[in-house]
Prior knowledge:
The complex is a heterodimer. By secondary structure, chain A is α+β, with helices and mostly antiparallel strands. Chain A is built from three helices and nine strands; from the N terminus they run αβββββαββββα. The longest helix of chain B is centred in the N-terminal third of the chain and has 36 residues, at 72-107.
Amino acid sequence: MSSEPKNNANRNLVLSLLVVVVGAFGFGYLLVPLYDVFCEITGFGGRTNTEAVAVTEAPDLDRDIRVEFVTTVNSYAPFEFAADADSMIVHPGQMYFATFTAKNMTGEDKVAMAVPSVAPVAAAEHFVKIECFCFNSQSFAASEERAMPLQFIVDPDLPDYVDTITLQYTFFDTARVASN
Amino acid sequence: MTATTVDTHAADHDDHDHGPTKGIGRWLFSTNHKDIGTMYLVFSLLMFFIGGSMAMVIRSELAIPGLQFVHPEFFNSMTTMHALIMVFGAVMPAFVGLANWMIPLMIGAPDMALPRMNNWSFWILPIAFGILLSTLFMPGGAPAGGWTMYPPLILQTGDAFPFLIFSVHLMGLSSIMGAINVIVTIINMRAPDMTLLKMPMFVWTWLITAYLLIAVMPVLAGAVTMLLTDQFFGTSFFLAAGGGDPVMFQHIFWFFGHPEVYIMILPAFGVVSEIIPTFARKKLFGHDSMVYAASCIAFLSFIVWAHHMFTVGMPLTGQLFFMFATMLIAVPTGVKIFNWVATMWRGSMTFETPMLFSLAFVFLFTIGGFSGLMLAIQPADVQYHDTYFVVAHFHYVLVPGSVFAIMAGAYYWLPKWTGHMYNETLGKLHFWMSTIFVNLTFFPQHFLGLAGMPRRIPDYSVQFADFNLVSSVGAIGFGLSQLIFVAVLLTAKKGAKATDRVWEGSHGLEWTVPSPAPWHTFTTPPKARIANESFE
């Protein structure tokens, strides 16, 4: 049979390896907040601001940026949802309004959530939403149709090579998320 | 049980003091590294045939354009299940089986360090795969969202979903326990004068692999647990509507997934590094540089994961970093390839079956390595992504790569396990059929991918028809060729009696014990020096 010192050596090594295993499991979860921080810093994944911010910058009237609106309705969300205009030409630093219209296609009350994403990635942090229906979940009565406002500024620090920004919204039924 | 084919010798060995118990109890309660190794190997062969029959379904469906035999949903289940079974059920357990059998013999240890845990880590596997295979009969069908389990698609799996997650948990548990056992055995139980750098390459590559396993399998466990809580417990890790991000799953998954592909190839490097010196009758060229190269590959595997997801939309700096880091892996891999070639240089080579499989490994794995370099080029990857080019690439590194190395190892050590030489004619037939058909199967898939044929779709446009037919013929041929290996195993005890040394050029402690290896070996530690001198 093995001697005492060897058993101790085995036990100590197993324990330290188990620490690695538990640490690795924890690291998997730690990646979640790390990823959020990383995305907020870099705009990775098209992350844009999801809370209102105030911006006061002088508009750059010489520069035209095309802003395109793309809307998607999640396959589980019983809604119609579209931008009133497909695109608009904007000057960096100037405030603009856009309107989106959504309709609850069911006879029941629904709560919806719009999730934004901006492309290209380099533009994500420079597309600043002042006020947006995507900041909060939106309640719809049965069959209600409603216009929803978006107020935004394109930051004049936008890299020179970007001349088109695409803002994409996906419309979700929040109930389908909670009780999936 | 089929397990008796390889191992009946131990029962009639006249070692009455320590002989195994009779009947099924010997296997159920086994703590013997050789018995457990045998069970791992037989289990992985069984899974190889189950996963392989799924591949036959896939290739039959794809033989001609249009839908022939199966529904698209079932086709997607087949691709998903084929991958999960081959990765976690065939390749990984086969290497753990080789590790169980050979590591104690190679380092002069009486058994694995933690024999009872060894029993557990094996017996969890049949349970895990029983659960996974049972999903084929569940409402909503088996998982069909791909083995990578990307949300939100995978969350649409039917009743099979929680069973999928639980079986992945169990596979991970088994791998982690196996890896801990390997590390403790290698660190604590080597023969007294076997220093780390004197260890055989197979032991070295397994030590590195085991560290990779304990570092990344828990990350996979975390990722699938997040999927589970997203589905059933109201969390939103990956659900955009709840503030989560589905792309984050891909990051976490591939943080596990890329080291995982090296978990499946590093032990193969080790097996080949044992076999080539034997049949070239020379020492392994650059043993220490092989160790450092394998360590480099292991380190780099942690910082290249995003090359699997170049198309998700990444900042330019990210794309550049992952592109260059990925290409860097070619350097240590090249060191290994050149070392194998240098080992053969001016050696007096003979071409027995294990050597043939090893030579094919070096050549065909390199083809897979080169297509990997092409995929690493980010601007080109945008075209290759999710096409059959990717399928061709990873099958080249996994089938004529990992699987050929496992076959080579099986032929190489089979006489040590059974005490008899296997049938060399059948072995060579198995090799040539496998090599011809594996290329017939996967080489045309490069062209299909470059021409734009997407993965994971049961139908395709007619311009892809010819290459697909060639590939399907090759796949059926490859599948049938593996039955020759079964014939080799069934006749394994009919050949001439094997000597202790087995091969003229073999070296290392495993060749100093009798053939077949007795149920208990190295109850007193050997001198590693003796084994080394017997070679030099």
